[in-house]
Design a protein that fits this description.
binds zinc ion; two-stranded antiparallel ribbon; three-stranded antiparallel beta sheet; 95 residues
């Protein structure tokens, strides 16, 4: 699974897949570049993320795409059938 914007494979450390409200998913690195912070009516700082594909704005904290992380996990286990080590970072995110 690759980020369609930067062509990097999603992982649990740097290129974490994040869901936007429009349904598109990109890695955290790409979305950080699309974020702007502004003050809302009640003078609170709001982070706005603009989707690089459809330009819809999301003003909520972006959830991690666990669906994609699950696929990565399965793929990892397939290629490392003899290794049964669970990534510590992955476990932390789930918990
Ligand atoms: Zn990316
Ligand atoms: Zn979108």
């Amino acid at each position: 699974m690759k980020c369609k914007l930067c062509e990097n494979y999603y992982d649990t450390k740097k290129y974490i897949p994040k869901n936007l409200q429009c349904g598109h998913t990109f890695c955290e690195q790409c979305l950080l570049k699309k974020q702007t912070s502004l003050l809302n009516d009640s003078n609170e700082k709001e982070i706005i993320t603009t989707c690089p594909k459809c330009f819809m704005k999301t003003n909520k904290k972006l959830p991690v795409s666990y669906a994609i992380l699950d696929i990565i996990d399965i793929a990892d286990h397939d290629t490392n059938k003899n290794k049964n080590n669970c990534s510590v970072i992955y476990c932390k995110i789930i918990l």
